[in-house]
């Protein structure tokens, strides 16, 4: 279950998740139709276009990625879980340090969504 793989967001405003309960932290999941394997390849292709992303864990239903900011070298954790029952990719992006992220995590996931949809 996605809730088992995606940690809840902390109270700080430096996290977004498709499973968040707070409106300001919620982001829509990505949809896929039918075939998880194809959706997974599309997502991996989108992630490969990011210069600063390193895949740390890669299983058929779960991806964990570390993304390092270009200037200050902050590391953010980005996770994806394939929810086959609903044909959704649940996702979360959170800063490892700091309190505010000035919208960086939301922009990152929306950028990944745009790359995924272009595939």
Walk me through what this model shows.
The protein is 27% helix and 30% strand. The chain is of the alpha+beta class. It has one domain (2-118): TATA-Binding Protein (2-Layer Sandwich), CATH 3.30.310. α2 (36-48) packs across α3.
Low-confidence stretches: none
- The tally of strands reads 6
Shape: globular
Q: How many domain modules?
A: 1
**Mean pLDDT reading:** 91
Q: What share of the residues does DSSP label as strand, in percent? A: 25-35%
Describe the sheet with the most strands: 6 strands, antiparallel
**What is the end-to-end distance?**
26 Å
Q: Helicity level, as a percent range?
A: 25-40%
Radius of gyration: 13 Å
| The CATH H-level homologous superfamily | Kinase associated domain 1, KA1
Order of helices and strands: HEEHEEEEH
Structural class: alpha+beta
Q: TL;DR?
A:
This protein has helices at residues 2-5, 36-48, 104-118; strands at 15-17, 30-31, 53-59, 62-68, 75-83, 88-95. By secondary structure, it is an alpha+beta fold.
């Amino acid at each position: 279950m996605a809730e088992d793989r995606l940690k809840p967001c902390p109270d700080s405003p430096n996290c977004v998740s498709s499973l968040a309960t707070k409106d300001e932290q919620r982001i829509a999941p990505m949809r896929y139709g039918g075939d998880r394997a194809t959706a997974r390849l599309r997502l991996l292709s989108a992630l490969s276009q990011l210069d600063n992303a390193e895949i740390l864990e890669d299983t058929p239903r779960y991806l964990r990625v570390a993304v390092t900011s270009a200037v200050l070298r902050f590391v953010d954790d980005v996770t994806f879980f394939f929810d086959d029952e609903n044909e959704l990719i649940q996702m979360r992006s959170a800063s490892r340090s700091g309190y505010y992220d000035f919208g960086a995590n939301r922009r990152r996931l929306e950028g990944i969504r745009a790359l995924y949809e272009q595939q």
